[in-house]
Request: fold
Amino acid sequence: MIQNYENYRKHMAKVADINYSCAMLGWDQETYMPEGASDLRSRQLSTLSGLAHQLFTDAAFGDLLATLKDDTSLSAAEKSNVLNTIDDYKKQTCLSTDFVEAMSKAISQSFNAWQKARQDNNFKLFAPHLKEIIALKKEETSRKGYTNVYDGMLDTHEKGLTIQKLDALFSDVREQLVPFIKKIAASKQVDDAFMFKQYPSDLQWQYSLDVLKHIGFDFNTGRQDKSTHPFTTSFGSADVRVTTRISEHDLSEIIWSTIHEGGHALYEQGLPVSEYGLPASEAAGLGLHESQSRLWENNVGRSLPFWENQFSKLLNVFPAQLSGVSTDDFYRGMNKVQPSFIRTSADELTYHLHIMIRYEIEKAMVFDEVSVEDLPALWNSKYKSYLGIDVPDDKTGILQDVHWSHGSLGYFPTYSVGSFYAAQFFAAATHQIPALKTTIAEGNCHPLLTWLRENIHQYGRRFTSEELCKKICGEGLNFSHFMKYATEKYTYIYSL
Amino acid sequence: MIQNYENYRKHMAKVADINYSCAMLGWDQETYMPEGASDLRSRQLSTLSGLAHQLFTDAAFGDLLATLKDDTSLSAAEKSNVLNTIDDYKKQTCLSTDFVEAMSKAISQSFNAWQKARQDNNFKLFAPHLKEIIALKKEETSRKGYTNVYDGMLDTHEKGLTIQKLDALFSDVREQLVPFIKKIAASKQVDDAFMFKQYPSDLQWQYSLDVLKHIGFDFNTGRQDKSTHPFTTSFGSADVRVTTRISEHDLSEIIWSTIHEGGHALYEQGLPVSEYGLPASEAAGLGLHESQSRLWENNVGRSLPFWENQFSKLLNVFPAQLSGVSTDDFYRGMNKVQPSFIRTSADELTYHLHIMIRYEIEKAMVFDEVSVEDLPALWNSKYKSYLGIDVPDDKTGILQDVHWSHGSLGYFPTYSVGSFYAAQFFAAATHQIPALKTTIAEGNCHPLLTWLRENIHQYGRRFTSEELCKKICGEGLNFSHFMKYATEKYTYIYSL
Reply:
């Protein structure tokens, strides 16, 4: 019996070796790969994905899983690994290796096309690839046995997430958050001009490394690089990599992208090394993953206590640029609420309108309610109606995000879900560690990280996001925590 | 019949996808990987190597090769691919997948141990790994069917190379080169003090990129990074990467390491993309590979014509450091001949004594004539007797090279073989293109690169090094070309 579980573990580790090698090739593709290598990389990624799939869906491995399902000698943690794997196995065996290879190749090509389209500000270069991606993803989701394809796409990214739940959540957003944003818009605007001075790249880079270290990122098992679109990737919890981007005329870009990706990375570095390749070493879901990045980015990184400690350090690096700016000025400025074009640099309130737009567009895309050619127009009209702004071009509009080019449909909503979880978790942590904000203000992020490691990171996929939330907070996802956090914070900042 | 060849090609491309992914993981391991990831990387590399081996040695593929062997419809180029693959297949099928995985893991661990040993200047940390590597490599070579294991190791790196040939070659070195080096040592030394001023890293780095471009390196299908030990790697000819290292107090380090690796890279970039995964897209052998790096490093990069064009550019970058130095001073200084500890920074004459020492030690290691523990003493005694110098410590001695940690036994001799080929090829090119040196002096390296592409690069493994040499020069490897080149050059430099 023990031998069975050991064989299962070994097989899973081998599959992980290939999948993490894919991740390595993907990391390089977005950081260092020379442009002329893109076709080559596509085919190599495709072969590796196919091999991982082939190995994972091996019939003998299926038999082993069936045996383990009824193995009463397994511990609860082992049982959870096996059940999660059986779930994955069922979904993967619906896909042929040919299909997986074709998908991988289409994604690599689509990513390259998106990069080119974005650079040339020309959606048409990307459109045929997006069409192919939508078709392949729909086919994949149907094959996996989902009757509602978009529900299936959501479930793939965050187990249990559905259109029904999201419609309810975004209805709360519309009813509570939208009026609050309007109230802010009607009040006196805060000043953030100091963010847009000339900030030399190398100094920004150095500060971003310091901040990563400050929040607890372990450089012995990770590193930071640069890429067009910041991301976090892992080749196992002993090698977790983040990327960031620098704008010489916008300090906020690097600070919050680094802290955001850093939050993702702390989760990955906190997953148990001993469970390598098993569900227990994987994230519970993308919504939960995002809760970790948002918690650090917003609840910590955009909080007054954090900057009570960090601002003097930042001032040391940029004394001229920040001359005359107080910690409170900095805090207010960084939290300026204002409709804008780019999701990743949006404030934490209007951010959810960006997501709502993408959610609505994805549903329309997947259910064939709009043709791919008409997407830029639909995008622009929604930005006009929800955010009141005129999108000037595709680069600033529909081409801004990498996700669709990666085949990630049903991914965006996890960003809002994650933010709402973040507020809920941070409230729970503050309740359980009364001195939490004081320690952060003293420059000590360790108690928070320890709390996250104990309550969330250590479990991997053993519990779903919803289960974890109930375990920690005694209730499932509840939007009111986010609204409470937002109301208190912005009432102070905007003197409402 | 055509279908058979097409299936063969597809299978080979898939194997190449995995092998090149291994190369990517290896590249990262030596450039960017965080230290704590080394065990993780070892296991991932081991799994991928095992998979590549398993796929390549597949029995059905063996049957396909047997069918293709007798296929009279194949072109000569196709036939050559098939025969080379059959040769590889025979050698690989002697090794089990378990053995290949064990070897890969041992190599990764040994590489990490070597890095640590070198850093701590402590050979003992590396010794047990080296022992394991020697044992595994001997086993591998025996399994491949070689009766003389060291001949087998040589043949693996450069087809047809044997102890007998090398003994003859190094006898020429002893009889002709050693007395010539003594003659130089007895004459007035040239001045190279200007090389050891303070040269800022970032300026060196920028110049090294310019030099790479100047010799014809294509940055659209390649890049340069930094590593402890400079190397060239390829993930297919559309993605070829070199690394270099910078010493702030020694300008020569980066210039010749960049040109050297650049020469390797030009060969890799010149291999036919259309033959991806097939022997025709692989280098003919390591001796021939080295001929390409040495030709650019020495016959071009340490020549007067090259610097007649480049020196003014270098002077522009470092006006203070090179103030008062003429092109001729620079030429003489860079070619200073002097016994030294480090192989990679040795002059092009004493270099071959470094190789002779390694050749003798490897034979002793492989034939159990010396224990691993006694290697540092043996190393140091040979440096004393051949180069007349006292090695101060292991870091400067036996731990300086990465090769053994990588399992590369029988590799070093290809460096001398390559240098001798380089002199022979450059003489042939100069004969066939009478204006060659003039074009180089005018800053145009294109005619030389074109000649190399046409005469060498395009063929891959279609011909062995020896066959190519005969095709180009009408004779096999002939040491006299190197001696002629060395005599003319150093008679001028040292006014002999």
In short: Residues 352 and 416 of chain B are 6 Å apart (CA to CA). The first strand of chain B starts at residue 222 and ends at 226. The longest helix of chain B spans residues 2-31. The beta strands of chain B are 222-226, 232-234, 240-244.
